[in-house]
Amino acid sequence: MTYQGHMLIEHGGSTPGFRTQIARLPFENLGVAVFSNDDIYGDQLMDIVKFGIIDKVLGLEKIDWNSLMKAAAVTNYEQVLSQIIPRPDNPKPPTSRWEGWYKNDAYGEILLCLVGLESSTLPECLQLTNEVYTTLPGVINPSIPSLVAKWNKVWSSHILLEHFDGDLYNASALDSIVTDDGFWVNREARDVLVTAEFVIEEDEIGFGLTGGIWGAGPGVDPPNGDTVRERAEVWFGKL
């Protein structure tokens, strides 16, 4: 890419709590490395610093990246808020408890355990239900039926499915981190709401995830179809 007429080659990377952006302008013999530990606005902060340094070192026209990034963040936040649908005052209950083992060939097996208004009765869920309010402090709303699974991936330790209406749940990826003051939870920040829809289809029980979870990127249309499985980005079948 080019920036104000100068070739710019860059690449970034991130993991919870650590973000990097390395930029090179090879024909100006200039390199800029920026780091941030902000998981929500870290990318914007790094761009503000990166472009500010480039503008100053090369004597380019100064662009107010701070104001531009703030305005973009406000616009994006308002857009996300406009897409949020409040949970109904009297939501329809789920047709099943939906707890148990599920499998996706790529993501593997997960054990969904019921927490909240009721707790799971499955013996294999006992440890999770006993520790969930300690390992995920302030996350579980006791008044809302929720399903939790240990995930143990690089960017998340748990998956939370919070009941919305009927067999539709809001899905979140959580990262439970041990600190000197107990556990702290990092919630994955997303621009699009991820949902999980459970269904019984022709002797098969499972749930489909939608909302950009598969990371297809811009320009790729989401799956569509008449069934939950056909329109799911990721499908977990019950074992």
Which short descriptors sum up this protein?
239 residues; 21% helix; single chain; alpha+beta; 14 strands; 38% strand
Distance between the terminal alpha carbons, to the nearest Å?
48 Å
The number of domains: 2
Largest sheet: 8 strands, antiparallel, barrel
Q: Report the uncertain regions.
A: none
**Main β-sheet, spatial strand arrangement:** 6-7-8-9-10-12-13-14
CA-based shape? elongated
Structural class: alpha+beta
What's the alpha carbon Rg, rounded to whole Å?
A: 22 Å
Strand content: 35-45%
Order of helices and strands: EEEEEHHEEHEEEEEEHE
> Mean pLDDT, as a whole number?
89
Helix content: 10-25%
Short structural summary:
By secondary structure, the protein is an alpha+beta fold. It has helices at residues 42-58, 65-83, 126-135, 228-231, and strands at 2-3, 6-7, 9-15, 18-25, 30-36, 100-104, 108-115, 146-150, 158-165, 168-179, 182-187, 194-201, 204-210, 234-238. The protein folds into two domains: 2-83; 100-238, no CATH class.
What does this structure look like?
Helices cover about 20% and strands about 40% of the residues. The chain has about 240 residues and is an alpha+beta fold. It folds into two domains: about 80 residues; about 140 residues, no CATH class. The chain has an eight-stranded antiparallel barrel with strand order 6-7-8-9-10-12-13-14. Strands 3-4-5 form a three-stranded antiparallel beta sheet, covered by helices on one side. A two-stranded antiparallel ribbon has the order 1-2. The termini are far apart. The mean pLDDT is about 90. It comes from Armillaria tabescens. InterPro entries: Beta-lactam/transpept-like. This is Beta-lactamase-related domain-containing protein.
